[in-house]
Amino acid sequence: MQVTSGMVGQGFYNDNSAPQLSAISYVLSWLDDAFDQLVLDDQTATIGLVDFGCSEGANSVAVLKRLIVAVRKTSDLPIQTIHSDLPTNDFSELFLRLSPKEGGGYDDDNVFSATVGGSMFDQLLPPKSVHFATTFNAIGFLSKRPLEQLPGYILPNGPSKQRAVGQVTKAEEKVFAELAYSDLQDFAKARAAELVPGGKLLIQVFGAGDEFRTCDGLYDVLNDAVLEAVDQAMISQGDYDQYYQPVYFRTLKELTAPFEDPDSEVANLFTLERSEFYEVTVPFVQEYEKTGDIDVYAAAYTNFFRAFTEAVLRLNFANHPSLETLVEFVFDQSEKLVRQYPERYEFHYVAVAALLTRKADP
């Protein structure tokens, strides 16, 4: 089964991705001076900037605008920007944002934009053509479903301690942790082939810590809503057992392990410059704390996680005779639960990030 077809399109993801931008913005300053460290040879004709997992483009364009500013401090060479995502991604909003005729683009006549459809776990660009590569959150989506079923819960990391409805066994979690490690190696190997020596790779993804995990609350309410669909006989218990979101929330140690483990396939390809676990404020949480408007909060909360979970839900239940009814029920029920029990689904956005430099080939 395909893991996901991408984020919800037609502008929905762009409209509900402000929390992701907060997490992205926190680490962008890491790249402000990175270009100063890059040595360009006389053969360099173009600076390559790439964002993997661009979705509908609002956040991706913001990232590359920041990188262009960093490059322009020291170089006036032509810049090639590339936004990449799955072939099934809705690129239409991105194309509009990149079109000068539609008021988009990068306000620099020497910047040329393109998109590339493909799996981020494969090499997608020519060797040594990239100077900066970034990815934000996309690496959290696993390359495949390693288990046919995950009957105790809808996410490999298991339920929050607060909600504690459902369970994932240690053996099951180990399978997903190992795949997450392997995926990260595959991603890094592909980027190592594309990056020039000295090129930078910034990886940021939703995370897990001792106190908070970004999955807590979000997947608890989604799980409760799907269980309600079981209770309403809209799906069977067997359907529930088979359905899960193939997404893994890494700790900081899990993010950096492939680059620090001497036995890793990529440890000799990159230098780990810095890494961090952090928490950012969430706009819709801040607004709720300010106004107390539970209706607005529940809608924003639900739309936020719907933007990146709906595609997986649809894939899992693609053969359901009333798919549209099921999908709407699950997210309507999710919003209802958040509205009724906001304290049950408390949400914190924590993230992990690592900045790496491509080593020169031996």
Q: What percentage of amino acids are in beta strands?
A: 15-25%
Number of domains: 1
Assigned CATH architecture: 3-Layer(aba) Sandwich
The CATH H-level superfamily is Vaccinia Virus protein VP39
Number of strands: 7
Radius of gyration: 21 Å
Per the CATH scheme, the topology name is Rossmann fold
Q: Name the helicity range.
A: 25-40%
Side by side, the strands of the main sheet go 3-2-1-4-5-7-6
* N-to-C series of helices and strands: HHEHEHEEHEHHHEHHHE
Shape: globular
Largest sheet features = 7 strands, mixed
Q: Average pLDDT, to the nearest integer?
A: 93
Give the helix tally: 11
Which CATH class?
A: Alpha Beta
Beginning-to-end CA distance, first to last residue: 40 Å
Q: Low-confidence stretches at least 5 residues in length (pLDDT < 50)?
A: none
Q: What structural class do the secondary elements suggest?
A: alpha/beta
Characteristic key phrases:
362 residues, Rossmann fold, 39% helix
Question: What's the layout of helices and strands?
Answer:
Layout: H1 12-15, H2 18-28, E1 47-52, H3 58-72, E2 79-85, H4 92-98, E3 111-117, E4 130-136, H5 170-194, E5 195-206, H6 218-231, H7 237-242, H8 252-260, E6 270-280, H9 283-291, H10 294-316, H11 323-340, E7 349-358
Helix pairs in contact: 2-3, 5-8, 6-11, 9-10, 10-11
Kindly describe this structure:
The chain has helices spanning 12-15, 18-28, 58-72, 92-98, 170-194, 218-231, 237-242, 252-260, 283-291, 294-316, 323-340; strands spanning 47-52, 79-85, 111-117, 130-136, 195-206, 270-280, 349-358. It has a single domain, classed as Rossmann fold, CATH 3.40.50. The protein has 362 residues and is of the alpha/beta class. α2 (18-28) packs parallel to α3, α5 crosses α8 and α6 crosses α11.
